[in-house]
């Protein structure tokens, strides 16, 4: 959160690594400082988050995979599958519909994508 006299701007950034986030936070602070200098005001910054990598958790992944196996196979209706394929088409993904079985556990747990277990994705 950046404040310059009575104005304020909320800037959000989420990056692929903690180092990337630190670099961009510095750059965003420089932008705020430059804007303040150009308007003869001053800027202050408040960081409202952290910079932590996601950590893989193989034991939790195995438990979750086992629990998901209790929910599958799912007998989706054709209407469900048509809807899923329409969404997949819209976002440019293969139009496979929804999964009907649980995929086997990969050999190694991979951490990627956005989640609530870390603030870097």
Show the helix and strand layout.
Blueprint: E1 2-4, E2 7-9, H1 18-38, E3 43-45, H2 58-71, H3 78-90
Written description of the protein model:
- By secondary structure, the protein is mainly alpha-helical.
- The protein is built from 3 helices and 3 strands.
- The protein has a 3-stranded antiparallel sheet, with helices on one face.
- It is elongated, with a radius of gyration of 22 Å.
- The chain starts with a strand and ends in a 31-residue tail after the last helix.
Global Rg: 22 Å
Mean pLDDT: 82
Fraction in helix: 25-40%
| Terminus-to-terminus distance | 21 Å
**How would you characterize the largest beta sheet?**
3 strands, antiparallel
Show unreliable segments: none
* DSSP summary: helix tally: 3
Specify the structural class.
mainly alpha
Strand segment count: 3
Structure summary:
This protein has helices at about 20-40, 60-70, 80-90; strands at about 1-5, 5-10, 45. It is mainly α and about 120 residues long. The protein has a 3-stranded antiparallel beta sheet with strand order 2-1-3, covered by helices on one side.
């Amino acid at each position: 959160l950046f404040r310059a006299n009575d104005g304020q701007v909320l800037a959000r950034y989420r990056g692929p690594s903690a180092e990337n986030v630190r670099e961009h936070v510095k750059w965003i602070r420089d932008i705020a400082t430059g804007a303040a200098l150009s308007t003869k005001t001053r800027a202050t910054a408040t960081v409202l988050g952290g910079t932590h990598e996601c950590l893989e958790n193989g034991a939790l992944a195995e438990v979750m995979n086992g629990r998901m196996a209790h929910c599958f196979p799912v007998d989706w209706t054709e209407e469900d599958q048509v809807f899923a394929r329409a969404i997949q088409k819209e976002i440019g993904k293969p139009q496979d519909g929804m999964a009907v079985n649980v995929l086997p556990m990969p050999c190694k747990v991979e951490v990627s994508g956005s989640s609530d277990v870390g603030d870097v994705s």
